[in-house]
Amino acid sequence: MGCCTGRCTFIFLCTLQLLAALERQIFDFLGYQWAPILANFLHIIIVILGLFGTIQYRPRYIVVYAIWTALWVTWNVFVICFYLEVGGLSKDSDLLTFNISVHHSWWSEHGPGCVRREVPTVSGKSLDGHSYISVMGCIIDYQYIEVMHSSFQILLALVGFVYACYIVSVFTEEEDSFDFIGGFDSFSVYHAPQKPSHVLLKPIYLST
Questions:
Q1: What are the transmembrane regions (predicted)?
Q2: Which residues pair with 20 in a beta bridge?
Q3: Are 34 and 96 within 8 A, CB to CB?
Q4: Residue 87 neighbours by CB under 8 Å, 6+ apart
Q5: Which of 11, 22, 76 is nearest to 45 (CA)?
């Protein structure tokens, strides 16, 4: 297949997915979001697997990628519902950190235009520092930034699923046509010994 076919487009799409996943992984690490970190790590591995399967003509790897995209879309829909507080979910809960820390999204304190200010406690004479962080002036609330990230991931995953199905069908057709042509070759090789068999049946005249 040439460079302008769906195969090259799918390679470009996988590369874009890797870049988007790495960008998201960095900010999830900064916010100690352990559940998204694990999901992003699996996503990066599967995308690399799909990229390898496309380059090396391995349709089974691309099938694994296509199955994962369905799970990846489901996960990102859950993240959207989490930050929009749909179905009783709360964006202030520690669900994404496995309830082992009180950290929230990195964008909640470092979003566009946000001014972070630490407010000391009223009765605090201890040397522990500050207990409350005030964030003001954010142009976009952090939950909408997370929703945009997840929406972009869903868009890439849906397009990737369509192209993955197309690439698998193309590879399968090429394999079937190759086996079909090879079947004629094996048939001719198998019947090749019939010619000398006729020679063996001819009467042999011995010269006296």
A1: 34-55, 62-86, 152-171
A2: none
A3: yes
A4: 81
A5: 22
- Alpha-carbon dihedral 89, 93, 96, 101, rounded to 10 degrees: -170
This model's pTM is above 0.85: no
The structure tokens listed for 180 are 């079909």
- The residue type of 22 is L
The four Cα atoms 161, 166, 167, 173 give a dihedral, to 10 degrees, of 150
pLDDT in tens, 40-96: 999 999 999 999 999 998 999 999 999 999 999 999 999 999 999 998 898 888 889
Could you write out the DSSP letters of every residue in the chain? --TTSHHHHHHHHHHHHHHHHHHHHHHHHHTT-HHHHHHHHHHHHHHHHHHHHHHTT-HHHHHHHHHHHHHHHHHHHHHHHHHTT-TT--TTSSGGGTTS-----THHHHSTT-EEEEE--TT--STT--SEEEEE--SS-HHHHHHHHHHHHHHHHHHHHHHHHHHHHHHHHHHHHHHHHHHHHHHHHHHTTHHHHHHHHS--PPP-
Residue 137 makes CB contacts below 8 A (sequence gap 6+) with 113, 114, 115
Q: How long is the chain?
A: 208
Region 179-185: mean pLDDT is: 48
